[in-house]
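Running this now, will post back.
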Amino acid sequence: IQDNGGNVGIGTNNPGNILHILKDQSAASSVLKLENKAGADDSGFDIDFQLATSGVSAKIGAIRTNSPGAGDSDIFFSTSTNGTSVTEAMRIKYDGKVGIGTTTPNALLDVDGGKIRLSSSGTRQLEFGTDATIAFGSNANVQVRRTGNDLQFKTNASEKMRIDSSGNVGIGTTTPGEK
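Update: finished.
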């Protein structure tokens, strides 16, 4: 139904927006479905956002990768700085890996080309489980391991430093006696 202001309503006689879809059912099903029957690699859908006459300002899309298996699909988010072309900023892969600055994330969160900042407002915390490995390239890494209430710092699987529960710091010893 189209009202006098040009708003279109699906499932409603009183659309409150340009496109107003009202689902009046309790069953879980899609409200809006975009389907590409091709199903080939790199097929999918984009939703383009254009602000004023500047061209494409942003894009959200789904792309079928079929890699490694048939039906695998990623979602991507793109932004524009010039209004004529968009650059992918973030991707969520079929396996749950999220890439920021990369279209091929190799970890649960893969950030490429920048720094990660914890803002200065509110609680700032970077939390690791019992063991964490921080890798610097492919050959260098630091492993931080909690043993009891001690922190161990390792490189190449060999402990180099320990901070014990009383705050003593040891370099080259696993039983530090001084702060």
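DSSP finds no helices and 13 strands in the chain. More later if anyone needs it.
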